[in-house]
Design a protein that fits this description.
Length: 324
C-alpha cells in the first residue's frame, strides 16, 4: 500500500475527525437535539488546536499527579504579579489535604513581541512547571480560542482527573470549600456537569460601544442559550472532550462564555445552579463584594481581586476554618 504524504495524512485525519464528531454528537444526542452541521473549514481553523503550536507545555503532569481537580487560569504574558499571587494563595497544592489539585496558567502570544517577558515566562515554566503557552494572539477577542485550547488540553492530557475548572486570574477561590462541595455531590456531578454563575435569557448587545457587542452578522439570534459566567466555572472532566467536539459545529464568536453555552446546547447539557438557602446565595459570586472572612468562607468564588488585594486578605482568610 503506498504511503500517504504528511499533508494528505493530515487532511485524512481532519476529515475523519469531523465525520466522527458529527456521528457521535448526532447519534448520542439525537433523541432530543436537532441535527447539527459542521461549520466550514475556514471558520473551524480559527479555533482548531491544529492551527496552533505549543511554545511551552506540561503534557505529562496530570498523568504523574493524577489530580482530582485541574484549575486552568487564562492569563496574558505580562500578568506576572497575578501568577505569583495565585501560586502563593488559592493555586497552592497544599490547600486540600488528601485531594490532589493542579493549577496551570494558559497563555498566548502578545500582539507585540516582548523578549524580556518571554524569557521570564520560560524561567517560570522551568521553576514551577505550570505554564501552557500556544502561539495564538492573546487578546480579549481571542478568549474563545483560548477556551477551546483549554478544553482540548484537558481532554488530551487529563482524562483521569474528576473535574476541570476555568477561572480568571482576578478571582478569589475558596478551594477547600469547592472540593468539599464537589465531593458532597457524589455521582450527580461525575458526568455532563457544569456549574458556575448561571445566566439565563440574556440577549446580544447590538450597541457598538459595548464591550460585549455582537453584530447580527456574526450572531443573528435574538437571545443566548443558558450559559455560565466566564469568570469561573467547574465541570466534570468528560465535558472537556465533548465541548471540544462540539466546537466543530459552533461558529466562533468573541464572547467565550456564551460560546461555551452554545457548545453545551449542541451536546444537550444544561448548567447547574450552585446555591445555598433556597437559592438566595450564589456560591459563584460575580459581584465585587467587600471582604469579610465568614462571608467569603461560604462562597466558592468572588470576583474583582488585584494580586495585591488577594495577598492582603489571604492570611486572614486562613482563620475562617476555625472561626466561621
Amino acid at each position: 500500500m503506498p504511503k500517504l504524504s504528511p499533508r494528505r495524512a493530515f487532511i485524512a485525519v481532519a476529515v475523519l475527525s469531523t465525520v466522527f464528531a458529527f456521528l457521535v454528537l448526532n447519534h448520542l444526542y439525537a433523541p432530543y437535539q436537532k441535527i447539527w452541521t459542521p461549520i466550514s473549514k475556514e471558520l473551524y481553523d480559527v479555533i482548531s488546536p491544529s492551527s496552533y503550536r505549543y511554545i511551552l507545555n506540561q503534557p505529562d503532569l496530570c498523568e504523574k499527579k493524577n489530580p482530582y481537580l485541574v484549575l486552568m487560569i487564562p492569563v496574558t504574558l505580562k500578568e506576572t504579579e497575578a501568577r505569583a499571587a495565585i501560586r502563593k494563595t488559592w493555586g497552592h497544592e497544599s490547600l486540600t489535604s488528601g485531594v490532589s489539585t493542579l493549577s496551570f496558567f494558559v497563555i498566548g502570544q502578545p500582539v507585540q513581541d516582548d523578549s524580556t517577558l518571554q524569557q521570564q515566562l520560560e524561567r517560570e515554566s522551568e521553576e514551577y512547571g505550570d505554564i501552557i503557552q500556544m502561539d495564538f494572539v492573546d487578546t480579549y477577542q481571542n478568549l474563545t480560542i483560548k477556551t477551546v485550547m483549554i478544553m482540548y488540553w484537558l481532554a488530551k492530557h487529563c482524562q483521569r482527573a474528576r473535574y476541570g475548572m476555568k477561572i480568571d486570574a482576578d478571582t478569589f477561590l475558596n478551594l477547600p470549600y469547592l472540593v468539599n462541595y464537589l465531593q458532597a455531590r457524589g455521582e450527580s456531578s461525575r458526568e455532563d456537569y457544569i456549574s458556575g454563575s448561571v445566566i439565563r435569557d440574556a440577549q446580544p448587545r447590538r450597541n457598538k460601544l459595548s464591550k460585549w457587542f455582537l453584530s447580527e452578522e456574526i450572531y443573528p439570534d435574538t437571545s443566548y442559550p443558558t450559559y455560565v459566567s466566564g469568570a469561573a466555572y467547574v465541570f466534570s472532566i468528560d465535558l472537556a472532550s465533548k465541548i471540544y467536539l462540539a466546537s466543530r459545529f459552533v461558529k466562533p464568536i468573541p464572547l467565550e462564555d456564551v460560546y461555551v453555552g452554545l457548545c453545551l446546547r449542541v451536546i444537550g447539557v444544561q448548567p447547574v445552579y450552585s446555591t445555598r438557602f433556597l437559592r438566595l446565595r450564589n456560591h459563584f459570586e460575580v459581584r465585587k463584594i467587600k471582604y469579610d472572612r465568614c462571608t467569603f468562607a461560604s462562597r466558592i468564588t468572588v470576583n474583582g481581586f488585584t494580586p495585591q488585594y488577594l495577598l492582603n486578605i489571604w492570611y486572614d482568610f486562613q482563620k475562617a476554618r476555625f472561626t466561621c
